[in-house]
Amino acid sequence: MYEIEQVGRQSYYINSPAKIGIYRQTDAEIYLIDSGNDKEAGKKVLKIAKQNGWTIKGIINTHSNADHIGGNRYIQEQTGCPIFAGGIEAAFTRYPQLEPSFLYGGYPFRELRNCLNLIQ
Prior knowledge:
Blueprint: E1 3-6, E2 11-15, E3 20-24, E4 29-33, H1 39-51, E5 55-60, H2 66-69, H3 72-79, E6 83-84, H4 87-94, H5 98-104
Parallel strand pairs: 4-5, 5-6
Antiparallel strand pairs: 1-2, 2-3, 3-4
Helix pairs in contact: 1-3
Protein backbone atom coordinates (compact mmCIF):
# COMPACT_ATOMS: atom_id res chain seq x y z
CA MET A 1 0.00 0.00 0.00
CA TYR A 2 1.11 3.58 -0.74
CA GLU A 3 3.16 2.60 -3.77
CA ILE A 4 3.34 5.09 -6.61
CA GLU A 5 2.13 4.03 -10.05
CA GLN A 6 2.81 5.98 -13.24
CA VAL A 7 -0.22 6.10 -15.54
CA GLY A 8 0.86 8.74 -18.07
CA ARG A 9 3.86 10.83 -19.00
CA GLN A 10 3.25 13.25 -16.14
CA SER A 11 0.48 11.47 -14.25
CA TYR A 12 0.70 9.09 -11.31
CA TYR A 13 -1.41 7.79 -8.50
CA ILE A 14 -0.60 6.59 -5.03
CA ASN A 15 -2.18 3.21 -4.40
CA SER A 16 -3.91 3.90 -1.09
CA PRO A 17 -7.38 3.29 0.38
CA ALA A 18 -8.64 6.41 -1.46
CA LYS A 19 -6.38 6.72 -4.49
CA ILE A 20 -4.37 9.96 -4.57
CA GLY A 21 -3.58 11.41 -7.97
CA ILE A 22 -0.38 13.24 -8.83
CA TYR A 23 0.14 15.58 -11.75
CA ARG A 24 3.83 16.38 -12.28
CA GLN A 25 3.96 19.91 -13.66
CA THR A 26 7.77 19.96 -13.84
CA ASP A 27 10.49 17.55 -12.79
CA ALA A 28 10.35 19.06 -9.29
CA GLU A 29 6.77 20.35 -8.88
CA ILE A 30 3.57 18.37 -8.43
CA TYR A 31 -0.10 18.90 -7.74
CA LEU A 32 -2.00 16.33 -5.71
CA ILE A 33 -5.45 15.25 -6.78
CA ASP A 34 -7.05 14.60 -3.39
CA SER A 35 -5.00 14.00 -0.25
CA GLY A 36 -6.10 10.73 1.31
CA ASN A 37 -8.23 9.96 4.31
CA ASP A 38 -6.30 11.38 7.26
CA LYS A 39 -3.12 12.89 8.70
CA GLU A 40 -1.28 9.57 8.37
CA ALA A 41 -2.05 9.50 4.65
CA GLY A 42 -0.72 13.05 4.45
CA LYS A 43 2.53 11.98 6.12
CA LYS A 44 2.95 9.13 3.65
CA VAL A 45 2.29 11.44 0.70
CA LEU A 46 4.92 13.91 1.94
CA LYS A 47 7.41 11.06 2.30
CA ILE A 48 6.77 9.95 -1.29
CA ALA A 49 7.14 13.52 -2.55
CA LYS A 50 10.44 13.92 -0.69
CA GLN A 51 11.79 10.59 -1.96
CA ASN A 52 11.10 11.73 -5.53
CA GLY A 53 12.49 15.25 -5.07
CA TRP A 54 9.05 16.80 -5.61
CA THR A 55 7.58 19.97 -4.12
CA ILE A 56 3.81 19.95 -3.64
CA LYS A 57 2.48 23.12 -5.30
CA GLY A 58 -1.20 22.52 -4.50
CA ILE A 59 -3.98 20.08 -3.73
CA ILE A 60 -6.93 19.77 -6.13
CA ASN A 61 -9.91 18.17 -4.40
CA THR A 62 -12.28 16.24 -6.64
CA HIS A 63 -15.00 16.28 -3.98
CA SER A 64 -15.34 16.78 -0.25
CA ASN A 65 -15.78 13.26 1.10
CA ALA A 66 -13.62 12.84 4.18
CA ASP A 67 -11.57 10.03 2.64
CA HIS A 68 -10.48 12.39 -0.17
CA ILE A 69 -9.69 15.54 1.85
CA GLY A 70 -8.47 14.07 5.14
CA GLY A 71 -4.80 14.79 4.46
CA ASN A 72 -5.40 18.40 3.36
CA ARG A 73 -4.74 20.14 6.66
CA TYR A 74 -1.54 18.26 7.46
CA ILE A 75 -0.07 18.64 3.97
CA GLN A 76 -0.97 22.33 3.85
CA GLU A 77 0.53 22.94 7.31
CA GLN A 78 3.77 21.26 6.23
CA THR A 79 4.09 22.81 2.77
CA GLY A 80 1.99 25.97 2.72
CA CYS A 81 0.42 24.81 -0.55
CA PRO A 82 -3.01 26.11 -1.60
CA ILE A 83 -6.06 23.86 -1.74
CA PHE A 84 -8.45 24.06 -4.69
CA ALA A 85 -12.04 22.86 -4.87
CA GLY A 86 -14.91 23.85 -7.11
CA GLY A 87 -18.36 25.21 -6.33
CA ILE A 88 -20.05 24.14 -3.14
CA GLU A 89 -17.32 21.55 -2.60
CA ALA A 90 -15.05 24.46 -1.63
CA ALA A 91 -17.27 25.21 1.37
CA PHE A 92 -17.37 21.54 2.40
CA THR A 93 -13.59 21.35 2.06
CA ARG A 94 -13.04 24.50 4.12
CA TYR A 95 -15.60 23.46 6.78
CA PRO A 96 -15.50 19.64 6.89
CA GLN A 97 -18.09 19.44 9.68
CA LEU A 98 -20.72 20.43 7.08
CA GLU A 99 -20.69 17.06 5.32
CA PRO A 100 -21.75 14.88 8.28
CA SER A 101 -24.33 17.53 9.18
CA PHE A 102 -25.92 17.08 5.75
CA LEU A 103 -25.62 13.30 5.89
CA TYR A 104 -27.08 12.88 9.39
CA GLY A 105 -29.14 16.06 9.82
CA GLY A 106 -26.81 17.39 12.51
CA TYR A 107 -23.46 16.86 14.17
CA PRO A 108 -22.86 13.07 14.19
CA PHE A 109 -23.00 10.89 17.28
CA ARG A 110 -19.60 9.97 18.72
CA GLU A 111 -19.83 6.49 17.19
CA LEU A 112 -20.07 8.02 13.71
CA ARG A 113 -17.18 10.45 14.14
CA ASN A 114 -14.41 8.62 12.31
CA CYS A 115 -12.11 9.45 9.41
CA LEU A 116 -14.74 8.44 6.85
CA ASN A 117 -17.36 10.82 8.24
CA LEU A 118 -15.51 13.67 9.91
CA ILE A 119 -12.02 15.02 9.37
CA GLN A 120 -9.97 14.73 12.53
